[in-house]
Amino acid sequence: MSKTYDRAYFDKWYRSPAHRVGSRAELARKVAMVVHLAEYYLARPLRNVLDVGCGEAAWRAPLLQLRPKLAYRGLDASEYVVARYGRSRNIGLATFGQLAELRFDERYDLVVCSDMLHYVPAREVARGLSGFVDLLEGLAFIEVFTARDDPGGDTQGFIARAPAWYRARFAAAGLLACGSHAYLSPRLSRSVAALECLPARA
């Protein structure tokens, strides 16, 4: 059965007390961790963020609370999301695979891809990653769950891949693992210590 990312989907998984996973406080802590980690490696405040598979842009408000002048751009494949929030929250219509071709006027200090790649077919993951580092100036937060994890929440369409599957593909894309779902652009590779980051190899 194909999934529809409509208002009912987001009401259930993001707003319903009986089904939602996580809380606003938990998200705020996660966003704060990612912002400060990105700024540590960039050695300056964040200027812009690209949020891929952003849904209704849950990350936008806590990001702007921390950095009010931040330029936020979201991308999502949900026509509902773009119709309802595209203009007010700066969300464009795009799939992960389209990162292979999508380019903007600037690269992004932070690229967020939270809790969505484990629903994406393998061919589309590979296609999107082929263009990933061209969009990334600093740090990517790629939160993904594997066959070893209990993803919780919405398991319809969950693809239980081995951790090594993702590590191999992230490494092939040139991303450097630095822990807690965070990966550095190869542009920062000369500014990190030998044991600080490793290629995300299997």
From TrEMBL:
GO biological process: methylation
One Pfam assignment: Methyltransf_12
Matches recorded under Gene3D superfamilies: Vaccinia Virus protein VP39
Residue ranges constituting the Methyltransferase type domain according to the UniProt record: 50-136
GO MF entries: methyltransferase activity
UniProtKB keywords: Methyltransferase, Transferase
InterPro entries the UniProt entry points to: Methyltransf_12, SAM-dependent_MTases_sf
Name used for this protein in its record: Methyltransferase family protein
Organism: Dokdonella fugitiva
